[in-house]
Amino acid sequence: MTTAPPAPAPTLTSEDRLSPELVKLALTVMLGAVMVSLDATMVNVALDTLARDFATSVATIQWVSTAYLLALAIAIPASGWAIERFGAKPMWITSTAVFTAGSILCGLAWSAGSLILFRVVQGIGGGLILPLMQTILAQAAGPKRLARVMAAVGVPAMLAPVLGPMLGGLIVSDASWRLIFYINVPICLATLLATRRVQMPDTRRPGAMRLDLVGLLLLSPALAALIYGLAQAGTHGSFTDSHVLVPLGAGAAILLGFAVHALRTRTEPIIDLRLFRTRSFAGASAAWAVAKNGHFLRRPP
């Protein structure tokens, strides 16, 4: 009895191969994504130290993390409009510069209130960086190479939630907590320097859609309320506490209002919910959201 020879390995065509330019672009935007993830997880480790240094309560200092998450939620919905209105490269440089400025200001913070405020600045920059990375890679790679690029970029991005607490713990125990924020600066500068040497896709559209202001005013506070409610669940240890139920209920109600607006508006909504009718898109979006952002909602140690 003879066995059939093994099937030959599929050969990659020129359209499937990752060009050196695409690899450089992927590494550049990966730096930005890793930077945002590392920052969030490192800060969670330092909350007790921050509370002692600023002589404030744990409930107050937890706003250092919560304010960052809320700023992320507020900034993300506007990213799609911004990248089409101003272009990928200008928005990437702007968001990275804002995150850099926020990191420096956080390192210079003199009180809990100032640190919370500067974390909002950081969160706005970080909230733009994450969706910009996806859009830039999707357009540069094309549908045939997108899965390979996202898989390569996803490995270090998934390691960031694991390495962040370790690195944050070492910094807090052996150095100043301010280094947690200052460590972002050389990474940000390296990202900005690399951005000058890569070619990003031209995402600007002639006659780009007008900003869906109604949708933005509904979606941003809805996401902020939901994230705040989930953060309070970690603080109070229960989903039945009024501090959790009220923001979750308000966020869900506002989000329902956005859904009605997005499905009925005659103009292009800030997020087209009709895309979620495609199972592959809905499944991929849910999987990415859980894998990428689940660590943000962990209760700080």
Characteristic key phrases:
301 residues, mainly alpha, Growth Hormone, Chain: A, 2 domains, globular, disordered N terminus, disordered C terminus
Outline of the structure:
With 301 residues, the protein is mostly helical.
What does this entry look like structurally?
- There is one protein chain.
- The chain contains 12 helices and no strands.
- By secondary structure, the chain is mainly alpha-helical.
- It folds into 2 domains: 189 residues, Up-down Bundle (Growth Hormone, Chain: A), CATH 1.20.1250.20; 85 residues, no CATH class.
- The protein is globular.
- The N terminus and C terminus are likely disordered.
Average pLDDT number = 77
Order of helices and strands: HHHHHHHHHHHH
CATH class placement of the largest domain:
Mainly Alpha
Class computed from helices, strands and strand pairing: mainly alpha
From the coordinates shown, what is the CATH architecture of the largest domain? Answer: Up-down Bundle
Biggest sheet overview: none
- Count of separate DSSP helical elements: 12
Low-confidence stretches: 1-14, 294-301
Secondary structure layout:
Layout: H1 20-45, H2 47-53, H3 58-61, H4 63-75, H5 79-86, H6 88-107, H7 112-174, H8 179-182, H9 184-195, H10 213-236, H11 242-264, H12 279-293
